[in-house]
Specification:
The protein contains 20 helices and twelve strands. Strands 1-2-8-5-3 form a five-stranded mixed beta sheet. A three-stranded antiparallel beta sheet has the order 4-12-9. Strands 6-7 form a two-stranded antiparallel sheet. With about 500 residues, the chain is of the alpha+beta class. Helix 8 runs antiparallel to helix 15. It is globular, with a radius of gyration of 25 Å. About 5% of the residues have low confidence. Helices cover about 55% and strands about 10% of the residues. It has one domain: Cytochrome P450 (Cytochrome p450, Orthogonal Bundle), CATH 1.10.630.10. Bound molecules: protoporphyrin IX containing FE. It holds the Pfam family p450. One of its GO terms (molecular function) is oxidoreductase activity, acting on paired donors, with incorporation or reduction of molecular oxygen, NAD(P)H as one donor, and incorporation of one atom of oxygen. This is 22alpha-hydroxysteroid 23-monooxygenase.
Length: about 500
């Protein structure tokens, strides 16, 4: 009994000593960072040892105002401050100009920084992780391909068909769960863009395994059998197998149809991004006459899967939140319906009746404003993380080498100084000359070297979805809430009851 007592006392003392030692280190570290050269490091508080200010950060993510974590510190320390969240000390910028400088990344000072579980799952050649000239080249190839008239025409028709097919049975459903329906539509489109796989067995396997794969993006970075990370890595192996087989078949088919290898095309054509999907575009690069520039097979298969990550959750969440905001703002919905009914009428008069890319992207200005306003308020990607490769000074703030920076988009999008009544869903604000989608204060798709190449594709998908939704249906949304952590979601997947509009 006595021995047990002393063991307990011994254990408690060791734990206490550990806490004291960690706290002393922490105080020293905090002081070190604010002293001498680090006077110019932004002010702030690194919080508790190990956890820093993570608990408050996460707690705010579960409220209706996740930006309150940033706002509180901004009012205490200024627009750029330091904190310690999710296992790392970090400098947070809520300043549009500082964010711009970080994103522009002159002199390649900043590299993407992700939690360990994400880097484990991404693979070292992922477009999301690579830097320098290879990144520039791959980014430009994908961007150029997605801008080709050939791609725009094909994908417009494909998305239209996919949306119409998905919306058709809504009339017979008691509740439509918008979040699920939107996910189904957008995953099909994404897979079409990347590997041209249509509905069927391969699409189902890709969907099942991709869902398993992304569950591990935010988890404990332990790779033992049975752990979340391990299961996700296994799912990625299965994804690589499926995509690998498709890429192999494509290579063989092209090789058989043309002895000179159809992928060995003229450089100018490559720059124009000719091809039917991202696999085609990357395969063209794997046959470059300059051996040093050839993209290896693993690079192509890995990247096709990794490019699904930024596209898979973002577009369906934007669709879902657009429906949510429209349900809460009937005047906006009426105006949106009017504009889209008008286009429909015009198309019925027009002999072909077909819609083109420009119909959705140019001829529906109010719809595009609804999309901009949805992206501003939804903050589906609420900011990006970077790591400084050297000491860098921006607007008088010093970001020391090896520190992480969070360029917080949500803080800029929800600040009164940038948007009047920022919590009001007001698509008309985009008609005012000073509010433009090209400004530093509007960055839902990031900016600079890593500006989202799927920007126009996302706007197109959203416009097609909204068009066919509002011309065909009226709806009443059930009560639901937006959750902001770890990613933006609707608590109940946004159930709505629809009635069709008879024409
Ligand atoms: C509403 C929808 C979307 C939003 C809000 C969004 C947002 C973003 C943001 C903020 C970045 C920059 C990340 C960074 O700087 O580290 C990004 C990058 C990227 N996005 Fe999107 N995205 C969307 C849709 C898509 C789609 C549909 C695709 C697929 C074609 C896509 C593909 C990519 C890729 C490949 C990158 C990496 C670019 C690079 O690092 O060079 N995104 N996206």
């Amino acid at each position: 009994m006595e021995l047990e007592f002393w063991i307990k006392i011994g254990t408690i003392s060791s734990v206490l000593m550990g806490i004291v030692a960690a706290s002393s280190f922490w105080l020293w570290y905090n002081k070190k960072e604010t002293g001498n050269k680090h006077e110019r490091v932004p002010k702030g508080n690194l919080g508790w040892p190990l956890v820093g200010e993570t608990i408050e950060f996460i707690a705010c993510g579960y409220t209706s105002q996740p930006v309150s974590f940033m706002e509180k510190r901004r009012s205490l320390y200024g627009k750029v401050f330091k904190t310690h969240i999710l296992g790392t000390p970090i400098i947070v910028s809520t300043d549009a100009e500082v964010n711009k400088m970080v994103l522009q990344n002159h002199g390649n000072t900043f590299v993407p920084a992700y939690p360990k579980s994400i880097t484990e799952l991404l693979g070292q050649h992922s477009i999301l992780q690579i830097n320098g000239s290879l990144h520039k080249r791959v980014h430009a190839l994908i961007g150029a391909f997605l801008r080709t008239p050939h791609f725009k025409a094909r994908i417009t028709t494909y998305i239209e068909n996919s949306v119409k097919l998905s919306l058709a049975p809504w009339n017979n459903m008691q509740f439509v769960y918008v979040q699920d329906q939107a996910r189904k539509i957008t995953f099909e489109v994404l897979v079409k863009v990347l590997v041209s796989v249509g509905p069927g067995e391969d699409l189902n396997s890709l969907k099942i395994n991709f869902e398993e794969f992304i569950k591990g993006l935010i988890c404990l970075p332990i790779k033992l059998p049975g752990t979340r990370l391990y299961k996700s890595l296994k799912a990625k192996e299965r994804l690589l197998e499926i995509v690998g087989r498709i890429v192999e078949e494509r290579k063989t088919a092209v090789g058989n149809s043309n002895d000179n290898n159809a992928y060995n095309i003229h450089t100018q054509e490559k720059e124009r991004g000719v091809g039917n999907d991202v696999v085609d575009v990357l395969l063209q690069e794997s046959s470059d006459s300059d051996e040093t520039r050839r993209l290896p097979f693993d690079f192509i298969t890995g990247n096709v899967i990794e490019m699904m990550i930024p596209g898979e959750e973002t577009v369906p969440m934007a669709m879902t939140l657009a429906v949510k905001y429209l349900s809460d703002n009937p005047v906006v919905l009426d105006h949106l319906r009017e504009e889209n009914m008008e286009l429909k009428k015009q198309k019925m008069i027009d002999s072909s009746g077909n819609y083109a890319w420009t119909d959705y992207m140019v001829s529906l200005p109010f719809t595009q404003n609804v999309i901009s306003e949805t992206l501003r308020m939804a903050n589906i990607i609420n900011g990006v993380w970077r790591k400084a490769l050297k000491d860098v000074e921006i607007k008088g703030y010093l970001i020391p080498k090896d520190w992480c920076v969070l360029a917080s988009f949500i803080s800029v999008h929800m600040a009164e100084e940038n948007y009047e009544n920022p919590y009001q869903f007001d698509p008309w604000r985009w008609e005012k000359t000073q509010t433009t989608t090209n400004s530093n204060s509007f960055t839902p798709f990031g900016g600079g070297q890593r500006l989202c190449p799927g920007l126009d594709l996302s706007r197109l998908e959203l416009a097609i979805f909204l068009h066919h939704l509002v011309i065909n249906y009226r709806w009443i949304a059930e009560k639901d809430e937006i959750v902001h952590f770890p990613t933006v979601k609707m608590k109940r997947k946004l159930p709505i009851r629809v009635t069709s509009i008879s024409t």
